[in-house]
Specification:
Layout (H helix, E strand, L loop, with lengths): L2 H13 E3 L4 H12 L3 E2 L3 E6 L3 E6 L8 E6 L6 H5 L2 H8 L5 H4 L6 H13 L8 H6 L12 H4 L4 H26 L6 H9 L2 H14 L1 E2 L6 E2 L17 E2 L8 E2 L5 E6 L7 E2 L12 E6 L7 E5 L6 H8 L10 E3 L2 H10 L6 H9 L7 E3 L2 E2 L1 H12 L7 H5 L9 H25 L6 H22 L1
Parallel strand pairs: 7-11, 9-13
Antiparallel strand pairs: 1-3, 2-5, 3-4, 4-13, 5-12, 6-8, 10-12, 14-15, 15-16
Helix pairs in contact: 6-11, 17-18
Length: 457
Amino acid sequence: MGRTGRWRKQKREYNFHTCNEHREVILLNSWLAQYGIRRSKKLSLAVFKDSDRGVLTKKKIKAGEEIINLPLNLTINVITLLIDADFNSIFLDNDKQCLVEYKQCVTFQSLLAFYLLFLKSQDSDSKWHTYLRSLPQYYTVPYFLNEDVQNYLNPEILAVIEKQKSVVDESFDVFVNILVNIKSDKNNIQKFSKYFTKSHFEWAYFTVNTRCVYMDLSNLINLTNKDSTILAIINDNTRISLCPFLDMINHSANCSNETKLLVNKEIENIPLVNLTEDIFSEVRFSIYTKNDFKAYSQVFICYGDSYNLKLITEYGFYLPLNDLDYVEFEFEKIKLFCSSRNIKFSQEQCNFIYNHGLNKDLYIDGRGLSFNFYGLLLVVKYFYNEDVNVSRLLYSAAICSYDRVLIDFIKPFVKNKIVDTKYALDKLQDFDQCNILNNCIQLMCQYVRILEKFIKS
């Protein structure tokens, strides 16, 4: 083989190991083949040093190649829910008028999580049993950190967690009330009612949150009469789906891909009352890569242009050197800082700020102040200056050339943010380290780097 060949072989073995011999993966591969998945024979599941489980290609993949092709009835989507009579009976055969009383009360993601637990509670009696067993048992999102740890997280991270908790708590309460009032005495529904707990629902919610893909089926089905179905209780759209195997491909911002829904022309605008699983057995969901991948490298897809705050709170991982990262600032805190400098906003100034949206999107990134942050400072300093037309200045090329007076004015405020963040980072070192906490610490360190760069500019 030669010295170079041995070195390459050792490096490959060091970076990953395949897991096709694992019983769980053998069962999953057999299940996928049984239900008609088509995927590149080059692909294999593997465990990577940096990203845990992912998808490996054993041979070179060229841009334009199809990675995976799934029949629609091997994905868990809005149609899957609508054609499951037993699941629908939970809402329709109920002491409460669920479609009316809980109209637009939950997100589709929450409903999909509820359905996932319905399937999981059936164990081996469910078609999806093998797929459900292959899913992670826990997720590395900050939502699952203890409250004493969360108290020291950056306010931006904490705000996302609080929003997630609100959604989970509210939808969980709705589903509990629905289950308490079910009429059906079917064994699988009674079993599900006992299985449904807060911890199980949190797992299911973040299973959907971290693994769903965008899938628009609006051309296939006619949702005109959705208010007479279980979709009456959702307050958003239904364009997400769980796709076995595809959900194991990890994210890279440097990759791009394209999805296609391959549909027979006869299958279009089908009324909800005519939905059956057989109708969609020939409809397929396909994904193509627009990148080249070397042999024995990890295959990636792009989840979208995502900054690390979204990546760690929604998906549970952190990307180093992410140019999309930025540090947010609250308008009210900026007002307090100005007040401490004996600068108070008049009603006229506030009206101007709100009318121009300068109270939102206030952040600093690697390039400096956001447009709105810079514009807000213009209003603070020059609104009553007779020699300056703030409106004209705000939308002129001059906004792009930094005013040193504005930068120096806001620097003490930014320095306070750095001090607060470093204090929180010191406190976080006292807690037991884990992947979730490490992701948060890395993000907060990134925030410090961004702000320190701004101070030095």
